[in-house]
């Protein structure tokens, strides 16, 4: 009997080791299953994040193309504005030269008008002086004629 008991104890020991190993393996398998589920969730999140990233990249690319088009248009408008400003500056320069020439001409005309006024004033002054002399001479002649007329009537 003792050998049957030893066999029972030996079998029980081996079976309990096997049972414990199976329990341990089942626990490890459940832990591994949890890890796999976590990896699956991470993969799903990564997939959706990748899709969002692709959409954002496409949107950013479209925005970049639109921005580049706007920049190109702005550069073209700036170039046109610079050309217009250069043309306006050239016209302004020509207008300044023309205005300076006109101002110089007006100054010459004014100087000529002043000189003509002076030339006109000199003969007028001479004429006034001569008229005053003539009037004085006429006045003296009239006084002399009156005196002669008075003397003739008294005689």
Strand-helix topology:
Layout: H1 2-154
Report on this structure:
The longest helix is centred in the middle third of the chain and has 153 residues. The protein is 99% helix and 0% strand. The protein has one helix and no strands. The chain starts with a helix and ends with a helix. The protein has 155 residues and is an all-alpha fold.
Alpha-beta content class: mainly alpha
**Shape estimate:** rod-shaped
Terminal residue distance: 218 Å
- Please bin the fraction of helical residues: over 70%
Largest sheet: none
Give me the strand/helix succession.
H
Poorly predicted regions? none
Average pLDDT rating: 84
Q: What percentage of amino acids are in beta strands?
A: under 5%
**What's the gyration radius in Å?**
64 Å
Total DSSP helices: 1
What is the tally of beta strands? 0
Concise summary:
This protein has 155 residues and is mostly helical.
Keywords summarizing the entry:
single chain; 155 residues; mainly alpha
């Amino acid at each position: 009997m003792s050998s049957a008991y030893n066999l029972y104890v030996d079998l029980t020991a081996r079976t309990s080791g096997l049972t414990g190993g199976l329990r341990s393996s089942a626990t490890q398998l459940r832990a591994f299953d949890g890890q796999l589920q976590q990896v699956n969730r991470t993969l799903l999140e990564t997939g959706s994040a990748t899709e969002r990233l692709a959409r954002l990249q496409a949107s950013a690319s479209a925005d970049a193309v639109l921005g580049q088009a706007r920049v190109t248009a702005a550069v073209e408008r700036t170039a046109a504005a610079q050309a217009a400003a250069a043309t306006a500056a050239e016209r302004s320069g020509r207008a300044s030269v023309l205005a300076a020439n006109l101002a110089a001409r007006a100054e010459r005309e004014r100087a000529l008008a002043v000189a003509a006024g002076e030339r006109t004033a000199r003969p007028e002054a001479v004429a006034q002086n001569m008229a005053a002399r003539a009037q004085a001479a006429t006045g003296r002649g009239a006084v002399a004629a009156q005196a002669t007329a008075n003397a003739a009537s008294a005689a």
